[in-house]
Amino acid sequence: MVKKIPPIKETAPASVTCWTHVFEKKEEIANVRHDLLTWYDKNKRDLPWRQNAKCEDINQRAYAVWVSEIMLQQTQVATVVDYYNCWMKKWPTAESLAKATLEEVNEMWSGLGYYSRGRRLHEGAQKVVNEMNGNMPGCAARLLKHLPGVGRYTAGAIASIAYNEVTGLVDGNVARVFSRLRMIGGDSTSQAVTDAFWSLAGTLVDSERPGDFNQALMELGATVCTPKVPTCSKCPLRSYCRAYTQVEKHKQNASARLIKVTTTTDIEDNLPDIECAADGCSLCLPANEPWDSSQGVMNYPRKAKKKPPRIERTAVCIIENVNKKQFLIVQRPETGLLAGLWEFPSTLLDENFREEQRMAHVSTFLKTHFGLHFKSSKLKHIGEVLHIFSHIHQTYVIDYIQVNSAEVGKLQCDQSTRWVDKTQLLESAISTAMKKVFKTYEAGVHISTAKTNGSKPIPRKRKASGHDRTDKKKQLALETFFKPALR
Question: In whole angstroms, what is the distance from residue 210 CA to residue 204 CA?
Fold first, then answer.
């Protein structure tokens, strides 16, 4: 059953000063809906969450879409598929997820990044079970209001796909499609452009198949109208795309000049004039960044300049109990970056630290937090690992120290610390960055051990017959030039 909403008036947002950036004709809107849905029915990818969205139980349907949409935030489809399948196998319902511990959720999410997403899913499931009698919020407005981590886009996706609510949505893929369809070249992070995108979403969404239409828009942006290599020849909306028309018009005019055509009347009659006629339009390309013919449709959208990432250096201390082959890990705070995950003892370094200052800082940190006293010679430097977060370029400076079981008994450990072996470590809720740190540690210790034992790296043996076989093939190929042709 389609949930009806009041019709959306086809008016431009208040900040728009020209009509280049909207759909003016109802017939064109109907054609866009039809052509896009026809293309989607033939070309949509077979993704697991689309199968789960067909479930008859409305709460189960909404939960399945919710999980997929949260996982897909800032993460590619190819990465999400396996995580999604494992998640739904372990926690097929909101009730089953609500019973899980945050530790289990973090372990399942490990490697997917943006770990607060998993925590909010868990919090949301508990809220659905404990406060809503297991019933998912039944519309976009209630989803937005009641579920942690659900924004305007996610609410629209769940409502349109699971509930068939007639509501539009805008994500990165959809914004790119809209910006090219209507030549929206203003700063994509500005309020004026954001409002324009959402206005287009509300105008275009199909009233009979809102969920499929929204998925079709996202599919088009992900597979055809891509950021760097769009395949306009395969686009079902090419005839409605003003950016594409602009490119073709430029090509025809360039061709006319090349063959010394004195008039372009026919060309201009074939392709409509799509120039913005208003001065200072907030949605057009800025005057100081004009259209670049070499970029084609990739002139749209124009992204705002990103703030430079914060540069940080962090000391990571790998402490090993050599008697039990176990490593000390600690749990991060419940808020902030990588909240609730486990890691090797770590401390932020001053960017101006020299080597002796860094070693002194690490030594003080281990004594203060764990009661670990040691000679500086016991602390071995392993190397460094660079890991890039969305807003931080983090360099992990890795040190390693061995302790025995007697020393372990003297350490100051509490519930936020654990001793784990290698298998347990890799199965714990640790970040991708810590896995990279551990891999670097293993390589560094292996090299150090080899040097201590006086052993040399074993050179790889070349296949004995490889050289002969290659020469033989080359010789045979040469001989064929002198053989008579066979019919």
Answer: 10
Between CA 390 and CA 375 the distance in angstroms is 38
* DSSP 8-state code for residue 110: T
Alpha helix ranges (H) inside 259-384: 265-270, 355-370
Confidence of residue 334 (pLDDT cuts 50, 70, 90): confident
What mean pLDDT is predicted for residues 324-334? Answer: 92
Q: Give residues with Cβ within 8 angstroms of 301, minimum separation 6.
A: 175, 176, 179, 180, 184, 185, 188, 193
Q: For residues 82, 84, 87 and 91, what is the CA-based torsion angle, rounded to 10 degrees?
A: -150
Q: What angle do CA 111, 114, 197 make, to 5 degrees?
A: 130
Whether the CB-CB separation of 237 and 36 falls below 8 Å is answered with: yes
How far is the C-alpha of 122 from the C-alpha of 162, rounded, in Å? 20
Q: What is the mean pLDDT of residues 267-286?
A: 62
Rounded CA-CA distance 472/329 in Å is 57
Characterise 230 by phi-psi region: left (phi > 0), alpha (psi -120 to 50), beta (else): beta
Distances 259 to 248, 252, 479 between C-alpha atoms, Å:
17, 11, 51
**Helices 58-72 & 77-90 angle (0-180, nearest 10):** 140
Q: 289, 320, 309: which is closest to 400 by C-alpha?
A: 320
CB 249 within 8 A of CB 267: yes
Count the neighbouring beta carbons within 10 Å of the beta carbon of residue 46: 6
Task: Give 415's contacts (C-beta < 8 A, 6+ positions apart).
Answer: none
Q: What does residue 182 show for φ and ψ, rounded to 5 degrees? A: -115, 20
The whole-angstrom separation of Cα 182 and Cα 20 is 7
Nearest to 400 by CA among 451, 328, 350, 323: 328
Q: Give the Cα separation of 209 and 231 in Å (integer).
A: 26
CA distance 84 to 68: 7
pLDDT tens across 100-142, in order?
999 999 999 988 888 899 999 999 999 999 999 999 999 999 9
Q: Name the CA radius of gyration of the chain, rounded.
A: 30
Rounded CA-CA distance 160/213 in Å is 9
Q: Which positions are annotated as active-site residues?
A: 69
Phi-psi region of 388 (alpha: psi -120 to 50; beta: other; left: phi over 0): beta
Provide the 3-class DSSP secondary structure of residue 320.
strand
Question: Residue range 448-453: average pLDDT?
Answer: 54
- In 3-state terms the chain splits into helix, strand, coil percentages (rounded to 5) of 50, 10, 40
Burial class (CB in 10 A: 0-12, 13-18, 19+), 201: buried
DSSP bridge pairs for 392: 310
d(CA 113, CA 126): 22
Structural tokens at position 342: 């486990």
pLDDT band for 279, please (50, 70, 90 cuts).
low
